[in-house]
Amino acid sequence: MKSSRTIEPVNASRDFLINELFFSTTTKKGIIVSGNDVFARVSHYRIEDMVGKPHNLIRHPDMPRSVFKLFWDYLLAGKSIAAYVKNMASDGCYYWVVALATPIEREGFLSIRFKPSSQLFALISDIYTQLRTIEQEHERNGDGLKVGMQAAEEKLDELLQAKGFANYDAFMQALLYQELSSRDEILAREHRLMFPPLSTPRSEEGRLGSALREMYQKSNRTYQQINRVYAQLDEYVKHNQELSTHSSEILTLTRTFQLICINLTVASSRLANEGHTLTAISTHLREASSWIADIVSGLAKQTAQISFCLGETIFSLAWARLQFEMVIVETHEFLTLLANQEQTVKPSEQLIKLADLRFAFQQTIMRVENALQDLAVAVNGLNAEVGELRKALLSLQVTYVGGLVEAARLSNAGNFSTIFHEVDTHIADTKAKLGRFTHIISSLDNFARQAPEIVHIASNAGIQMGLDQEQLSALVNDHASPAVTPPPHLGNQRHKSTSILSKAA
After folding, report:
1. Are 351 and 213 in contact (CB under 8 A)?
2. DSSP secondary structure code for residue 7 in this structure
3. More confident residue, 486 or 99
4. Tell me: the pLDDT tens digits for 320-355?
5. Would you call 150 helix, strand, or coil by DSSP?
6. Are 88 and 55 contacting, i.e. CB atoms less than 8 angstroms apart?
7. 3 state SS of 97
8. 71, 79 Cβ separation under 8 angstroms
9. Number of CB atoms found within 10 A of residue 270's CB
């Protein structure tokens, strides 16, 4: 189903606040099922006019098709995705968002968007222009949309790698973390609240309104706990970058060391019988350097695995935090509609939105738990590699001392002393890098050990969310029309949360 609109883009933006969140859900075919007030206001549509329409209703022609292909590839594979998206309102104006989407239980997808503000955002306009140009060239040549999208997707990988990102996963992990950090800094600087304060209670709200107020206040307290966990991530983002840097530097030192050992072997062989001992020593050094190279290769692989697990953990915690923010915002919106006695308020639809958010939150927390478990395994593996590297360096030092003594004994040893001192320098440099490396590993190990506490806090939030929504569901059934029933997936989430919690305990 395609949109039949004929809106022309206008070179003007529609602004919105840094603390505002968009929310919508769609079917598996991308048909809009629900949305919130922010989505309606900024896109300049009424919610009732958007429901039943394809989500590309707001697609801006500047957006590369390849980026939307990425969205579908991730979502249909059951994975969450984040991206910068330029949308078009009904008046032709544009607005940029950081868009995150994830599958939900009701055979569809949930999306949360917010305002981009980080330095990373400045890169994306030029990248998207290049991708769109590639797509349009293929379209003009009659190659078909798929060929153009494939070429643009390959170009995207190339451009991201040039910016230092291994792949799109690494880019979107950095994207979400940097955007939330930038948003938090702006909120603090402008003394702006993330969530609006509650209005004065009204008698018209009844028991449902009282329950929503209590849920809103409890959710705010829980959010503070989640934020305390999230605040720790700054340190580990830095560690992730440092770990990769130190791993590369150790690898470079190892390769240089191998060349020195080869040169030493060649030079000692020229001394004939007089250099027999030096030849044996240099051969041992060369073999040891190969051993070290193998260890460092394994160390690099473990480091890459740690980087992936840490990136997944940071992304998932950020995503869970954003989902919980949306729960609080939706609770406030529900209460406001109820307090104002809006005719459009449909409690059952509000419950479905909250249930979708809770399901997404619980799935994301499971991703956090799995990533933390994988991180612990990878850290243990890296510790083992570091232990082997220390043994190898000790063996090298012993051989180096013997070589230095033998070089001093020979009258025609030439610059062997200099070469052996160079070996010593590389051993010392590797040890120094390894010392910092070990400190970072210890910090990551400590983070991995916090997994039960982190998952416990998040799982408790999911359980409390479920209990609150069960209470709301009962109140809606008591006081609304008999036709109103809670969504079928409200009741089966409590067991899933409890299962997560039992693993963390």
Report:
1. no
2. P
3. 99
4. 999 999 999 999 998 888 877 766 667 888 899 999
5. helix
6. no
7. strand
8. no
9. 10
Instruction: Give the separation between CA 25 and CA 34, rounded to whole angstroms.
Output: 5
Burial grade of 228 (CB within 10 A; 0-12, 13-18, 19 or more) = exposed
**CB-based burial label for 363 (10 Å; 0-12, 13-18, 19+):** buried
**Can you name the residues that pair with 27 across neighbouring β-strands?**
108
Give the per-residue pLDDT at 4: 45
Give the three-class secondary structure for 100: strand
Q: In whole angstroms, what is the distance from residue 376 CA to residue 383 CA? A: 11
CA dist 454 and 458 (Å) reads: 6
Beta strands 22-27 and 108-114: pairing type?
A: antiparallel
- If one compares 478 and 168, the residue with the highest pLDDT of the two is 168
109 by DSSP, 3-state: which? strand
- Phi and psi for 81 in degrees, rounded to 5? -145, 150
- Tokens representing residue 136 in the block: 């349009």
- List the one residue out of 329, 320, 377 whose CA is nearest residue 220: 329
Instruction: Give the pair of three-digit tokens for residue 23.
Output: 């929310």
User: Between 416-449 and 233-269, two packed helices, what is the crossing angle to 10 degrees?
Assistant: 160
pTM above 0.90, yes or no: no
Report CA torsion sign: 366, 368, 374, 376: negative
| Look-up of token digits 């230092």 | 164
The phi-psi region of residue 487 (left if phi > 0; otherwise alpha if psi is between -120 and 50; otherwise beta) is beta
